[in-house]
Amino acid sequence: MTIKIVPALMSTLLCFSAGDLLAQEPDSCKAIKFADIGWVDNAANNGLTMVLAEGLGYKPKATIVSLPIALASIQKKQMDVFLDYWSPASDDTVKPFRDKGTIKVLEEPNMPGAKYTLAVPTYLFEKGLKDFSDIPRFKEELNGRIYGIEAGSGGNKLLNQIIAENKFGLGEFKLVESSEAAMRVAVARAISKKEPIVFLGWAPHPMNLQFDMTYLTGGDDYFGPDYGAATIYTITTPDYAERCPNAAKLISNMKFTTDMEAALMARIMEHEKADVVATDWIKKNPQWLETWLAGVTTFDGKNGLEAVKKHLDL
Question: Distances in Å between the alpha carbon of 250 and those of 123, 261, 266, 293?
């Protein structure tokens, strides 16, 4: 049997690009549910992505939860996306979900070049606290405390493990678990009084500009080499690319740099809204739109780049 395609029909078919076909998603894909674990860099990543998603006609929403709850919510498909998986610090938390196949870690990282390990004010470093193994000598001055972030975070888990195993002689130390914001307040207070403090530090983060701080050596077996060199990955539901291919394409396209993150985070830490900060940054750096929106259409199948530029008055 021979099938004839008349010229008019062929012309119509050729009008549909691969991107147009990609955007044929069910209405359930219009709402993109982001996990936000309360870290400023996570707010920055979400802000950039959500501004673009809105310009494409989606309805993005971020919900603040702890890391374990974020992963459990993605496993249950109550959330779709998490843009801030720090590896190796959070590997132990992510591994059970990854092993069961109930979450998907995208193969290509969204940001290389980060780091995550213990730090001290530089004046304390200059007094001799330069390595994890030096901490016990300062136990009295430190009140036997190490300042972490929220309970269940990857960094806190590593520190609790170090304490439980009495590594570096830290068995009698107490980890102060609160939040990133509370830790920063404690560090700022200590530095204002030139008091000793040991805390979790990482980059990118404006704390590296806010505080005169130095990272400790010696934590390679736990935080990884090169001062806890970290790679940031994106996590989605396992079937997100099949259910919502256009939204998933946007998510997989989102790549960030440490300089970009630091610029965004500095303003967010001054209590500016993440979406406002992200919008301003994109307007000043529109060249990134070509990368982020490659192969992406609006929710209803129109040109994605043109729609976002119109949305942002570019």
Answer: 45, 18, 25, 6
User: Using the 8-state DSSP alphabet, how is residue 216 labeled?
Assistant: P
- 224 and 290 assigned to the same domain: no
* The pLDDT of residue 1 is above 50: no
Tokens of residue 62, six digits: 């971020």
For 249-295, give the DSSP string: HHHHH----HHHHHHHHHHHTTT--HHHHHHHHHHH-TTHHHHHTTT
Residue 41 structural domain: 25-112+230-311
Alpha-carbon span 106 to 233, nearest angstrom: 7
> pTM above 0.90?
no
pLDDT (mean) for 180-191: 95
The CATH code of the domain that includes 168 is 3.40.190.100
Q: How far is CA 151 from the centre of its chain?
A: 17
